[in-house]
């Protein structure tokens, strides 16, 4: 009987303690916490009370806290959570043109394209931060290069441009009608459906949240999620198409496709992982339809 009574007391105290811990967590979150990612400590910004995210709690003095701040990346929990969950935009705000693309079945495609790509790197991952640093270098180079700025503006509205220049150089008849039809009926709906599946923020959206000063050239063609790059899908797929039609110039076609993808990164509107995913999808779709693409015009 005595043991049973003691057991009930123990359970009651344990429950009260758990409730107390939860209340402290809620209180701390509301008033604002700071996370010290390098040492695992959480400290309340208005007091010297510190909780260790491990086995044992500890209390440290203000000097130790200040020293830790110098050597740690400081982010509020609320900001960190908002970065992790950040999306390009609200699917409910999609306009009618995009809605039609989302409902359109890509012609000729038999593969399960919607499930081919892995998730992009997490918004708060080291990979994304490294990509943003690389993008920042590219956009800074762009400021000093007028010809590259002009090239980017052309690619923005005509992703076929570098391929057409090659065709012009070798006096080849460019298959514009075929390329346009493949874009409208196959690639445009496919890439838009993938974009809104992942709803990845654009680099400049995420850079702002992470405190990285990333400039970009604002145009009308990047008003959609980032992953994968639609321009890069267009460029790579068209390069594969032209390599099939004019195999003698395959290396030049593929380099031109890469130029399209790179232009979007110099513009500051795509991650490297967006263009990598674009090549993967373009190649998979090409392999799926390469024996029947000519039927799109019949």
Summarize the structure.
The chain has about 300 residues and is mostly helical. The chain is built from 12 helices and 4 strands; from the N terminus they run αβββαβαααααααααα. It folds into 2 domains: about 1-80, no CATH class; about 90-295, Vanadium-containing Chloroperoxidase, domain 1 (Up-down Bundle), CATH 1.20.144.10.
Would you kindly provide a written description of the structure presented here, covering whatever features stand out?
With 298 residues, the chain is mainly alpha-helical. It has 2 domains: 2-78, no CATH class; 89-297, Vanadium-containing Chloroperoxidase, domain 1. It contains 12 helices and 4 strands, in the order αβββαβαααααααααα. It has helices spanning 2-31, 62-70, 77-85, 96-103, 126-143, 146-157, 161-169, 176-198, 203-209, 230-245, 250-266, 272-289; strands at 33-36, 41-44, 50-52, 74-75. The chain has a 4-stranded antiparallel sheet with strand order 3-2-1-4. Strand 1 (33-36) and strand 2 (41-44) form a beta hairpin. Helix 8 (176-198) runs antiparallel to helix 10, helix 10 (230-245) runs antiparallel to helix 11 (250-266) and helix 10 crosses helix 12 (272-289). The protein starts with a helix and ends in a 9-residue tail after the last helix. 28% of the residues are buried. Residues 24-68 and 70-75 have low confidence and may be disordered.
């Amino acid at each position: 009987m005595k043991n049973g009574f003691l057991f009930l007391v123990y359970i009651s105290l344990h429950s009260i303690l758990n409730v107390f811990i939860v209340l402290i967590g809620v209180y701390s979150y509301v008033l604002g916490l700071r996370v010290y990612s390098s040492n695992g400590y959480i400290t309340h910004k208005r007091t010297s009370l510190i909780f260790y995210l491990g086995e044992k709690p500890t209390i440290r003095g203000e000097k130790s806290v200040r020293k830790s701040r110098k050597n740690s990346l400081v982010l509020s929990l609320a900001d960190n959570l908002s970065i992790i969950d950040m999306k390009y935009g609200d699917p409910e705000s999609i306009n009618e043109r995009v809605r039609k693309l989302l409902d359109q079945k890509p012609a000729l495609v038999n593969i399960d394209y919607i499930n081919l790509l892995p998730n992009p790197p997490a918004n708060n991952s080291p990979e994304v931060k490294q990509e943003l640093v690389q993008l920042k270098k590219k956009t800074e180079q762009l400021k000093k290069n007028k010809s590259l700025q002009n090239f980017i503006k052309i690619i923005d509205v005509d992703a076929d441009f570098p391929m057409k220049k090659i065709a012009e150089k070798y006096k080849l008849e460019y298959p514009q009608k075929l390329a346009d039809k493949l874009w409208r009926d196959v690639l445009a709906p496919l890439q838009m459906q993938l974009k809104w599946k992942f709803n990845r923020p654009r680099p400049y959206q995420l850079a702002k949240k992470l405190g990285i000063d990333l400039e970009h050239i604002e145009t009308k063609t990047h008003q959609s999620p980032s992953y994968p790059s639609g321009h890069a899908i267009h460029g790579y797929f068209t390069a594969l198409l032209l390599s099939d039609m004019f195999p003698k110039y395959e290396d030049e076609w593929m380099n031109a496709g890469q130029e399209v993808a790179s232009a979007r990164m110099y513009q500051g509107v795509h991650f490297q992982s967006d263009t990598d995913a674009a090549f993967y999808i373009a190649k998979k779709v090409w392999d799926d339809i390469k024996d029947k693409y000519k039927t799109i015009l019949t």
